[in-house]
Amino acid sequence: MPTGRRRTAIPGTDLSVHPFCLGTGPFGDAIPEERAFDLLDRFRATGGNFVDTANVYGRWLPAGENVGEAILGRYLRARRASLGEDPLVIATKGAHPALSDMGRPRMRPADLRQDLEDSLRTLGLERIDFYWLHRDAPSLPADAILEPLERFREEGKVRWIGCSNWRASRVAEARDAARKAGVPGFCAVQDRWSLAALNPGASPDPTLVAMDDDLYALHLETGLAAIPYSAQAGGYFAKRARDPATDPAADPAAMPRHLQAAHDNPLNDRRLHRLLEMARTLDTTVSRLSLAFLLAQPFPTIPIVGPRTPAQLADLDAALDLVLSDGDRDRLAAGRRF
Ligand SMILES: NC(=O)c1ccc[n+]([C@@H]2O[C@H](COP(=O)([O-])OP(=O)(O)OC[C@H]3O[C@@H](n4cnc5c(N)ncnc54)[C@H](OP(=O)(O)O)[C@@H]3O)[C@@H](O)[C@H]2O)c1
Questions:
Q1: How much is the pTM?
Q2: Domains along the chain?
Q3: Atom in ligand 1 nearest the alpha carbon of residue 52
Q4: pLDDT tens per residue across span 30-44
Q5: Distance between CA atoms of residues 79 and 294, nearest Å
Q6: How far, in Å, is the centroid of ligand 1 from the Cα of 234?
Q7: Closest listed residue to residue 60, CA positions, set 108, 21, 96
């Protein structure tokens, strides 16, 4: 089987998806519509079938609309004929707080209903394959949050559900609630995770949640799938690995400030050193290795990636050909602080 056609099962669902999920956060913003269509076509040509969007994507632009979903919806309509033979697995997210009031969760059943109906209409779908809650509302009991989502499943508007930016204790609470109610509940967690250790307090948004010891232990114990975002840390290691002799962008001053703030630390210096050594030995690149690291986890892990160019997209296929041993994976994670 060509590597691009590989599939990963998401436990607890009937979904079988490409090992990478294509992120669409910049569609309509840093990635204009024509390039978005081209990236989607290329992703599908290599066997890609799993796409992540959100009702909030693009709402930060002056029009305040869900531009990301609108572009994906136009793509699905434009490619209807070929998608009939090889459908995409569409994931979107609702329950994001209003961008002007990030501290106030939007988790009332009416908020969830409004976001879901808007996403269905914009995407032109009768049903969402995988529906994520974009944030948690930690003061609400998990069973109260699951109830309306279960109703959406009964109505056939959503096939499977998951949570994004939830802490381990809350994921565990939701799993208990689902078991008691006899429903599938959350089938995956979408939190931030890459090989690049994250500096504490680096995120300007305190409602975002990253992989940590407790979450990792929960995935390990339960086999719950991780579908992490920012899985390449915005290309942090690839940017640091640039060679000043051949690449003018190798100037350390060219590293985006937010990536420096998030990831510059001695642990990542050591990881970069190890990545460069391994890349030389295996004749590959640090970005492919950092993706292979996530694919080598002992529980299902489907990284959400944000390639911006055809060359970056092509790297995904190359990363699939790299199979890290447990020893190499653990050497890369040494000193783990996520
Ligand atoms: N649930 C949530 O709260 C949440 C939050 C954030 C994102 N997401 C989802 O996750 C998706 C991906 O997030 P992300 O954009 O942060 O992911 P990412 O893949 O970590 O970062 C994307 C950036 O990495 C660089 N890059 C990509 N492929 C590369 C390659 N092969 N070699 C070197 N550099 C490469 C590019 O930087 P340059 O542009 O500088 O080349 C690109 O803009 C989003 O689109 C969205 O769907 C979800």
A1: 0.97
A2: 3-190 (3.20.20.100)
A3: 47
A4: 999 999 999 999 999
A5: 31
A6: 5
A7: 96
